[in-house]
Amino acid sequence: MTDTGTRPPFDEPAEDEPFEEDPRYRVAEREMYIAVGYWVAFTVVVTATAWLIGGGKKAEELTFVLGFPDWFFWSVPVACLVFSGIAYVLVHRYFTDMPLSADEGAEADRAGR
């Protein structure tokens, strides 16, 4: 490949160009921490519920809820429904709807939004 003297659009800025951090970066980083925390909490709750209710039981000791073993019923369908509600609240309360392209953000700023 030969060098044509032009920079690719995502190359590092030249030293004489000041770096300007996109304000959407901080919002995206905050939302990433919320999402990872949600995922960790969901994983811990599902695993702990299944282990605490069904761990170490013999087949004769199992009880059933709606045809499912109780450990499965409480750790999968119920936990998924509860965490779906939590995800809904997190998205509507803590996540920000923002444009992904730089052009749309500039237009929204000019419009005073």
Automatic annotation (TrEMBL):
The chain crosses the membrane at residues 32-51, 71-91. Residues 1-23 are annotated as: Disordered. The keyword Transmembrane applies. InterPro entries: DUF997. It holds the Pfam family DUF997. Signal peptide: none annotated. Keywords: Membrane, Transmembrane, Transmembrane helix. The keyword Transmembrane applies. PANTHER family: INNER MEMBRANE PROTEIN, INNER MEMBRANE PROTEIN-RELATED. This is Putative membrane protein YhdT.
